[in-house]
């Protein structure tokens, strides 16, 4: 059974997560971030999935109900949405990632899975969990932790594994200032992906003991994993062994899209000729809720008013009416009106762009009406005054920011 932890806000995404949890944030033209972990589980042959939700979960739960309700109990499949509901104590919501599993142990035990796969719901990647489960089963480890290689000094933002030459975890350090290097690779560190495999029976015992500890923060990264590492039988699984690659020579793709800049670049990367993330692989589809929509449409063909798109992804129900797109990613139902120019832009569903608009290096939140004549991406000072602008020059535009323009 797989449990996806999808309760986090993701505050570094700023206003993008004011109304939705990070796993519910839109990604890649049609999907949400959580669809990657869920699709990996389904494609890996795991027919029982639970999703633990907490922060502003309405849009996430609605998406799960619309897009993931095809599981059938008569085929021994199940899909459980597990909101924080004070089931153990009337005083406590989920107090940490470990507590989110602990509070749902009765549901998990009712399915009696031999192994439990714990997944983070806020990363973009394609992985065959079956390879990791097999490795865990053969090793006899108390826990197997999914790990990704990152440049050593970038690992300060992650939980970092210190391993020996047999992939046994010697030490687990949460966001260390000086991350330990991998054996024989001084510039590379091994960061936790927030993916753990346990035997359910062992995890149940560990979680019950942890829940009774008043000094614990009830978190996998801070409490459970360090405890099992100290016991001497925790192992690291290298993501490179189970990653689905876009080609034989391609690097394993894994992204934490937890900042505005990282979110923007991961989406815009998809507009390149051969992106690192292959969304066109029919052997490993990314499942999601797909609306019934009309085809995308491009109209007008005169100088200065030509509906065209270069190196762009355009979803269903989009109308590009006498406007030019370049390196743009349009989600469902975006309309771009005449004489407008859109470059390096991520436009979330149902955005409407007025006439004679020029947008460059922007993310526009769902459902926003961009007024005619607006120019963003040409004057850094003016952009920073009106919108959320990052150090890299990416502007996030929200409904409240557009409303404030009239004042």
Automatic annotation (TrEMBL):
Entry keywords, A to Z: ATP-binding, Carbohydrate metabolism, Glycogen biosynthesis, Glycogen metabolism, Nucleotide-binding, Nucleotidyltransferase, Transferase
Entry binding sites for alpha-D-glucose 1-phosphate: 94, 159, 174-175, 192
Job of this protein: Involved in the biosynthesis of ADP-glucose, a building block required for the elongation reactions to produce glycogen. Catalyzes the reaction between ATP and alpha-D-glucose 1-phosphate (G1P) to produce pyrophosphate and ADP-Glc.
Lineage, broadest ranks: Bacteria, Pseudomonadati, Pseudomonadota, Alphaproteobacteria, Sphingomonadales
Self-association state and partner proteins as the record states: Homotetramer.
Protein name: Glucose-1-phosphate adenylyltransferase
Domain Glucose-1-phosphate adenylyltransferase/Bifunctional protein GlmU-like C-terminal hexapeptide span(s) in chain numbering: 294-397
Listed EC numbers: 2.7.7.27
């Amino acid at each position: 059974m797989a449990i996806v932890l999808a309760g986090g806000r993701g505050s570094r995404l700023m206003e993008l997560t004011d109304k939705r949890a990070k796993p519910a944030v839109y990604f890649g033209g049609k999907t949400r971030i959580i669809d990657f972990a869920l699709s990996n589980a389904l494609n890996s042959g795991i027919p029982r999935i639970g999703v633990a939700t907490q922060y502003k979960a309405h849009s996430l739960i609605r998406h799960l109900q619309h897009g993931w309700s095809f599981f059938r109990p008569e085929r021994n499949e199940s899909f459980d949405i597990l909101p924080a509901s004070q089931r153990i104590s009337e005083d406590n919501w989920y107090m940490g990632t470990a507590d989110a599993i602990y509070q749902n142990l009765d549901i998990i035990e009712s399915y009696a899975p031999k192994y439990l796969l714990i997944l983070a719901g806020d990363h973009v990647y394609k992985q065959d969990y079956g390879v990791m489960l097999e490795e865990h089963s053969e090793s006899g480890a108390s826990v197997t932790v999914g790990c990704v290689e990152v440049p050593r000094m970038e690992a300060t933002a992650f939980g970092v594994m210190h391993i020996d030459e047999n992939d046994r975890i010697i030490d687990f350090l949460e966001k260390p200032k000086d991350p330990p290097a991998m054996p024989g690779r001084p510039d590379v560190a091994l960061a936790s992906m927030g993916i753990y495999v346990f035997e359910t029976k062992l995890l149940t015992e560990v979680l019950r003991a942890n829940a009774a500890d008043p000094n614990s923060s009830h978190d996998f990264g801070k409490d459970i994993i360090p405890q099992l590492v100290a016991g001497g039988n925790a192992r690291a699984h290298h993501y490179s062994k189970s990653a689905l690659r876009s080609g034989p020579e391609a690097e394993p793709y894994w992204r934490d899209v937890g900042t505005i800049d990282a979110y923007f670049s991961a989406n815009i990367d998809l507009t390149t000729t051969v992106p690192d993330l292959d969304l066109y692989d029919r052997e490993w589809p990314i499942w999601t809720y797909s609306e019934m929509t009309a085809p995308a449409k491009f109209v007008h063909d005169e100088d200065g008013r030509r509906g065209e798109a270069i190196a762009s992804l355009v979803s269903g129900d989009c109308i590009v009416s006498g406007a030019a797109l370049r390196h743009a990613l349009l989600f469902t139902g975006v309309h771009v009106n005449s004489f407008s120019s859109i470059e390096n832009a991520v436009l979330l569903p149902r955005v409407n762009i007025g006439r004679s608009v020029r947008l460059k290096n922007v993310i526009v939140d769902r459902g926003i009406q961009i007024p005619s004549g607006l120019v963003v991406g040409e004057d850094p000072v003016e952009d920073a005054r009106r919108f959320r602008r990052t150090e890299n020059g990416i502007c996030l535009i929200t409904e409240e920011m557009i409303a404030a323009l009239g004042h």
